[in-house]
Amino acid sequence: MQYLNTNPAVEEIKEALTVLAAPEKAQFFPKFFKTGKGEYGEGDVFLGVKVPDQRRVAKEYYAKISPQELSFLLSSGYHEHRLTAIFILTFKFEKTKDGAVRETIVEFYLNHLQYLNNWDLVDSGCYKLLGRYCFENKRDDLLRNLSHSDIIWHKRIAVVGTMHYVKKGSFELTKEFVTRNLKYPHDLMHKANGWLREMGQRNQQELISYLNLYYRDMPRTCLRYAIEKLDEGLRQDYLKGRI
């Protein structure tokens, strides 16, 4: 849904990002985020603003703009507008203790998923915002529905979103989603599923038990990501199939 823009902060944010844009970054980012024909970020356009600068703009403006007004940023054709909107939305969620406000923010997030169409747009908010909300409100179903989606970005939101669960020592949802999409063909999901490594940081035996069941079936990229923080000897045992 699009809203009537009556808040000058929207244009101020866009102007601030334009001022911070660097031409060399604007040339580099399309290659980095795979925007060529047939690539996962096809057609995306960039101003050339570095992430730390976007975060600074988001911190300056998050209290000056409503979630509804953020629709103008989150639906923008410019990647940095969308990412800055996610940073703002996440800051707003983290700064409020009002459950009703958080619910409104999550509803807005879920209603704008079509604009979260690259891995950084997904990873920058999904576990701090949606994952946290689902954990604290026992709404596993929201993430589970995304895990069943045919859209790769939804699947990635689901598994990366469970990192808040992992942080709290809850691992079953992560394992469920990784197992469901273990053979998904795109390497962006292989990398997302490789966030299993964070489970290992909390409880290495949980990771090892899961790997022992599934590592032979894992795409190589997923396995490498999942084991990258294990001791070198154990890493080599998995890579060489000795377990």
From TrEMBL:
User: Its domain of life?
Assistant: Bacteria
Instruction: Please identify the protein, giving its name as recorded.
Output: DNA alkylation repair protein
Listed Pfam families: DNA_alkylation (PF08713)
InterPro entries on file: ARM-type_fold (IPR016024), DNA_alkylation (IPR014825)
